From TrEMBL:
Residues binding Mg(2+) 1: 156, 218, 221
Domain of life from the UniProt record: Eukaryota
Protein name: 3'(2'),5'-bisphosphate nucleotidase
Pfam families, per the entry: Inositol_P (PF00459)
GO molecular function terms noted in the UniProt entry: 3'(2'),5'-bisphosphate nucleotidase activity; metal ion binding
Organism: Panicum virgatum (Blackwell switchgrass)
Length: 242
């Protein structure tokens, strides 16, 4: 129940005597009170799902330990999709989760950029770290949440530069940042090694096509705004053509 509804219902729950004005209280003639009855609302109350909890301590412990769908799990997303009637509800929920995680990472990097005064996108700059990190998180989340068949992601980055000699430092930085973002969000209880990070980047090498299902990603759309601490976008779309 939202606050607006609570505000409307609140006064209706008061005893009838409490609603009498001061003029009625000052009257010498007592007025008979109407029989107590439940107030009639001009709108139906929303349905709130209920469940009966066990009364015994052993049953209560078993109830508390019952398996529950993890927040954002594929099973829960599928249930929400069926309940909403939107055939793409699961994909939309997964996309929101993926972009939210990517935004967490980008926000942390952007703050470092603004404080350090970086104004370009050199090969090993924090902007590149954010590009890779954003693409990695989106790729990982989509594969874990909604990839039931061939996974196709058309994105910007590949792992070629990170596999070269001398790229160990930036690869380690990206790996640490991705794992830290996942851990801080509480979304998954997993940690990725460097090879898993490189593989997630290369998942974005799809060429797409005129048929099938393809995710399309720009990990940071608006680099100039990003380095200035201004607006940018993590642009993600789903193309579905049978």
């Amino acid at each position: 129940m939202d606050m607006a509804m609570a505000a409307r219902l609140g006064p209706l729950g008061l005893p009838h005597a409490a609603l009498l004005g001061s003029s009625a209280a000052a009257s010498t003639r007592a007025l008979p009170l109407a029989p107590s009855r439940a107030p009639r609302l001009p709108y139906p109350l929303p349905h709130f799902p209920t469940c009966r909890r066990p009364s015994s301590s052993s049953s209560a412990a078993a109830y508390a330990a019952r398996p529950r769908p993890r927040r954002g799990s594929p099973r829960l997303l599928a249930v929400r999709a069926m309940a909403s009637g939107n055939p793409y509800a699961a994909e939309l929920a997964a996309a929101k989760k993926a972009v939210t995680l990517a935004a967490r990472l980008c926000q942390a990097v952007q703050q470092d950029i603004v404080h350090s005064g970086i104004q370009s996108k050199a090969d090993k700059s924090p902007v590149t770290v954010a590009d890779y990190g954003s693409q990695i998180l989106v790729s990982l989340v989509l594969k874990m949440e909604v990839s039931s068949g061939p996974f196709s992601l058309v994105a910007e980055e590949d792992s070629e530069e990170l596999r070269k000699d001398g790229a160990e430092e930036i690869l380690e930085e990206i790996t640490d940042l991705v794992n830290e973002t996942i851990s801080d969000s509480g979304s998954y209880n997993i940690s990725f090694m460097k090879e898993g990070i490189l593989s997630a980047i290369d998942d974005g090498k799809s060429k797409g096509g005129p048929t099938g299902r393809h995710w399309v990603l720009d990990p940071i759309d608006g680099t100039k705004g990003f380095v200035r601490g201004d607006q940018y976008a993590i642009a993600l779309a789903l193309l579905d053509e049978d």
